[in-house]
Amino acid sequence: MSNKIFKSILNTIPRPLLIKASYLVRPMIALTLKGNQFTDPIDGKSFRKFLPYGYGKQRENALSPSTLSLERHRLMWLFLKDETNFFTSTKKLKTLHIAPEQCFLDLFRKQKNLDYITSDLESPIADVKADICDLPFKDNEFDVVFCNHVLEHIPDDKKAMQELYRVLKKGGFGIFQIPQDISRETTFEDDSITDKKERAKIFGQYDHVRVYGKDYFNRLRSVGFKVDEIDYTKKISEEKVTRFCLMKGEILPVCYKK
Fold first, then answer.
1. 254 and 219 in contact (C-beta within 8 Å)?
2. Average pLDDT of span 146-164
3. 93-98 and 114-120: which strand pairing?
């Protein structure tokens, strides 16, 4: 399938429908692309190439044919596996996953050491339908919270960050990835830009409301989080960065509640 077709699909079909359709087409695509060039570390399967991905400029070898993971998902998986007790904790970890990604959903649900809850306002695969700015959970309820590529969609992102902080237990951790332009010192947002094409041009995607800059981490700190800015690709060999199709230099925002 050509890059133009992929781009058209991403920009015209609503995300909930894309999620449902992907369950049908994923096995066929994975079989077609089977090979040995690249490997998805999440399921260990290898392919002659990954799929392109991007609402604007298409990134080559970005989307895994088997799990539908992107670069950011594979990076987070490696970090969780090698640097945390997420997979090995003998204590059950109560985990909240906002806007759950398909590449993680079934695997996390099967983990016996997790009490795993998913939440989203629109996703057809989420357990609890809820607004991230008004989560229906108790204070200090979760050991782990994931919220990836969500905040750039939320007009009041500070309120959303406050909610993530509220439901996380003291001593717990969260990973809150976002698309980030690290050449920008400060985040850019302009509520007056409402045209979808103009939004896509300026913010990178038609349903984004801002472009986060380097100050993203301080925005998280302002609501109480201790934030580690981790360039985890520096700890991974060049061979594996290439083989796993990671994005070199991508920063993982790992947040803790003190």
1. no
2. 97
3. parallel
Same domain, 84 and 57: no
Does 25 share its domain with 140?
A: no
**What is d(CA 253, CA 216) in angstroms, rounded to the nearest whole number?**
9
CA distance 5 to 8: 5
* 99-152 per-position pLDDT tens digit: 999 999 999 999 999 999 999 999 989 999 999 999 999 999 999 999 999 999
- Contacts for 163 with CB less than 8 Å, ≥ 6 apart: 132, 133, 134, 135
| Conformation bin of residue 227: beta by default, left when phi > 0, alpha when psi is -120 to 50 | beta
Largest CA distance in the chain: 50
In Å, how far are 13, 42, 94, 109, 172 from 106, measured between CA atoms? 24, 12, 16, 5, 23
Q: Helix 102-110 vs helix 71-83: angle between axes, to the nearest 10 degrees?
A: 30
Gap between the Cα atoms of 95 and 102, Å rounded:
16
Q: Which residues are CB-neighbours of 111 under 8 A, at least 6 positions away? A: 87
Tell me which residue of 179, 162, 169, 170 sits closest to 219, measured CA to CA: 162
Supply φ then ψ for residue 61, to 5 degrees.
Answer: 50, 50
CA pair distance 251, 160, nearest whole angstrom: 21
Query: Which DSSP helix (H) or strand (E) runs through 242?
Result: helix 238-243
Mind listing the pLDDT tens digit for each residue in 1-26? 555 555 555 555 565 665 555 556 66
Q: Residue 29's pLDDT is what?
A: 77
The domain of 53 spans: 3-70
What backbone phi and psi angles, to 5 degrees, belong to 35?
A: 180, -160
Number of structural domains in the chain: 2
Q: Which of 254, 96, 232, 252 is nearest to 174 (CA)?
A: 254
